[in-house]
Amino acid sequence: MSLQLSSRQVAERTQAVVEDLAQLEGPLLPILHEVQKEFGCVPEEALRTIAEALNLSRAEVHGVASFYHDFRKEPAGRHVLKICRAEACQSMGGDALADGVRSALGIDWHETTPDGRVTLEPVYCLGLCSCAPAAMLDGELHGRLDETAIRELVKETGR
Ligand code: FES
């Protein structure tokens, strides 16, 4: 999925976000969050606008945006499936489940299916370790997953 806005539109809308939040202490993260809410991602043009407005280098702003995996370069698909890859889930077969999902969807981590249906993200602990392996679909937690349950989750993304 791509962003259907001109660079100028992105810059103008980003500028408005910056003006709203620039007075906060440590405004960069709140601005990045708000920009992502506005566009579904943090476009390159927005990084440029933010850097200029906050008097930071583009490298600094880019560094922060790329450090936090929640900030996307492209908008996510209609559904976001996050599969836990941390230790407790790994020890309960999470890797095999994740491999099955990647192969069923034909995409890798951080990718979106060509029809824009689902984006697949790794996550490192969902706080559901006692119910490992775990995943999150569109913000909803699912634990004690097995092949059938995760297949059902993937199916939900097609509804
Ligand atoms: S390790 Fe997967 S939920 Fe904690």
Structure in words:
- By secondary structure, this protein is of the alpha+beta class.
- It has 7 helices and 4 strands; from the N terminus they run ααααβααβββα.
- A hairpin with a 2-residue loop joins strand 3 (135-137) and strand 4 (140-142).
- The protein is elongated and about 50 Å long.
Structural class by secondary-structure content: alpha+beta
Bound molecules: FE2/S2 (inorganic) cluster
Overall geometry: elongated
Question: What is the percent of helical residues?
Answer: 40-55%
Query: Between the first and last Cα atoms, what is the distance in angstroms?
Result: 18 Å
Q: Largest sheet, described in full?
A: 4 strands, mixed
Could you tell me the radius of gyration in angstroms?
A: 18 Å
Contiguous low-pLDDT stretches (5 residues minimum) are none
What's the structural blueprint in terms of helices and strands?
Blueprint lengths: L6 H15 L6 H12 L4 H11 L3 H10 L11 E6 L2 H5 L2 H12 L12 E6 L11 E3 L2 E3 L4 H10 L3
Parallel strand pairs: 1-2
Antiparallel strand pairs: 1-3, 3-4
The structure holds FE2/S2 (inorganic) cluster.
FE2/S2 (inorganic) cluster (FES) binds next to helix 5.
What's the short story on this structure?
The chain is built from seven helices and four strands; from the N terminus they run ααααβααβββα. The protein has helices spanning 7-21, 28-39, 44-54, 58-67, 87-91, 94-105, 147-156, and strands at 79-84, 118-123, 135-137, 140-142.
